[in-house]
Amino acid sequence: MSGFSRAPRPSYATLPDCAPPYPTILDFLDKRFPKLGRDVWQARLDQGKIRDDRGQLIDLDTPYQPALRLCYFREVDKEPSIPFREKILYQDERILIADKPHFLPVTPAGPYVNECLLYRLRADTGLQEIVPVHRIDRETAGLVMFSIDRRTRGLYHELFSAGHARKCYEAIATLPAEQDRETWLIKNRIVAGEPWFRVKVAEGEVNAISKITVMQRKGSIGRFRLEPLTGKQHQLRLHLSLIGSQILNDRYYPHLQPKHADDFEHPLQLLAQELCFRDPVANKMREFQSTQSLEFP
């Protein structure tokens, strides 16, 4: 665990238009970011840590102005240190493919301000404008694509938003009760669950599709190949739980486990193993494979 940490770049929040009487800026920040806490925002306003995008100080007495853009730096008193390193597998003038370790978030989130893949890559490469074009969970290891060139960024975003990039994952999980079955195609609707960081199945239009295949069995444990045809948060973890399997060391599904510090000796056994797509600029197929592997018992 490291000490105080401050983001290298500012974050922004714009005051929305609303009917008078206007709330205070403290009320807005508390409602917009409830998990941070009202006392934290009050202290930041008292300490002069929030300004507008012109550099003017914002304090507790600053009146609410619709469309005013607030500027602040994310900070935490104790940022966890992640003792694993990423690898850059490929880089050209447009994209970068990184192999992310377990436990490291792709972008800043929660207590992680500087310990994230994005800021590590910016520091290592000197490329300050790179951004991820898709995400994987903090607990998941494997391949993540970044855009380097603003001019082509939308083309690579569309590979994932339109489902043109083929992603394959590997998981080590308990075997379902249907011992003779080898494949499943799960189609359903995933929405936010409780607590806020979990998801659940709901009625309505399908927005999550996964193909699940058992590749190897040993006792009560199997090696699974997972092919998400959509990209919803926690999709694969939830879909495996729906067939009666649980990824080893999964603390969220099928049942939420008590909160505790990361156990670096027992990472979630889920790996973003393969990424395949036709490069929209070079017009040729690109295939990448993670250099990491999961331990099958």
TrEMBL record:
Any GO BP: enzyme-directed rRNA pseudouridine synthesis
Q: Quote the PROSITE patterns the UniProt record gives.
A: PSI_RLU (PS01129)
Which superkingdom is the protein from? Bacteria
Q: Which InterPro entries does the UniProt entry name for this protein?
A: PsdUridine_synth_cat_dom_sf (IPR020103), PsdUridine_synth_RluA-like_CS (IPR006224), PsdUridine_synth_RsuA/RluA (IPR006145), RluA_PseudoU_synthase (IPR050188)
Please give the Gene Ontology molecular function terms for this protein: catalytic activity, acting on RNA; pseudouridine synthase activity; RNA binding
Task: Give the matching Pfam families.
Answer: PseudoU_synth_2
Q: Which residues form the Pseudouridine synthase RsuA/RluA-like domain?
A: 95-241
Q: Write the protein's name.
A: Pseudouridine synthase
